[in-house]
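In this supplementary section we document a worked example of the pipeline. Step one takes a protein sequence of length 371 as its only input; no multiple sequence alignment statistics are reported here. Step two produces a three-dimensional model, which step three serialises into structure tokens for compact storage. The input and output of this example are shown verbatim.
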Amino acid sequence: MVIKCKAALAWEPGKPLAIEDVEVDPPKVHEVRIKIVATGVCHTDWEYLYGQGMKVRPFPLVLGHEAAGVVESVGPEVTKFSPGDKVIPLFLPQCGECERCLSPKTNHCRKNWANMQVGVLADGTSRISCKGQQVYQFLGISSFCQYTVVPDTSLAKIRCDAPLDKVCLLGCGVSTGYGAAVNTGKVKKQSSCAVFGLGAVGLAAVMGCQVAGAKRIIGVDINPDKFEKAAVFGATECVNPKDHKKPIQEVLAEMTDGGVDYALECVGDPAIMTAAFESTKDAWGSCVIAGWTETGMMNVVVEKILMGRTLSGTYFGGWKSVEDVPKLVDDYMNKKLKLDEFITHNLPLDQINVAFGLLKSGNSIRTVISL
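The serialised model returned by step three reads:
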């Protein structure tokens, strides 16, 4: 049966989302229909609607990609999910069969990847429509809708006692930042770290550095209101670039006798990426780019790489999505991972534009939307 429900719909770029009545089709082969219970509001959602750092995707579409919900129904040939299962949808699939899934070197499965990036599922269409018009699914998810349909390779089944309004954050931001430190960066004990950007991804990176045993964790942000929160996650000190005349990379080099061992860029700004890279110590400094941009170009002085620094990127924190997200949920339930502390606001779906405003103003870390 087709389900009629509410969604926050983006009709065109640069315009506020509109709450609309939509229709969500039943799942097709290897697809699962989910009732979304809670969704985080991520900067990537805002960036696609209002910013300049994303590739063009078709409109109208329903944004949202960091969520948790309950399986409503399953399509033909689905064997790993049943109605009532608690789940987290995944913008990064894990089919478990391709060369990339079988390799320990990467988490970059490409099952349905090209289609999901442009807002459709395996057959080239979406499962959401409004007023007789197809509505595209952002990154194949569309969690700003009360129901959505995703491929069964883009879904993680989680434990039944997990609070969905908390673990939804593991669908993107927290996993990305935390994994940037512990997986991609492989931060070592007694090391020095600088985290650029203290939003949800950056704070998760701070948390990852602390869990890894870093001795010195320097948070970098132009909003000093975030410094107290950074300390909660393990930052030993914070720096505001606006308080210094010198470039921030020079400031950090002076603070750390030549540079930090690890720098994690969690903003998605190419200029900040360059600053992060140049803030690391020559001979062994390592910089991980976790901030998201699809269109920017980063400037790197070649000599700074030749002198022994390394530069790497991370996508979804390096986690194998289907198998690792349930483990992260377990870590949260066992109090090894913070989630509650990221959530600054809880709002209903009809206040989604307020949530975007809070995000852009710097007054929120994560707003969780209840559907």
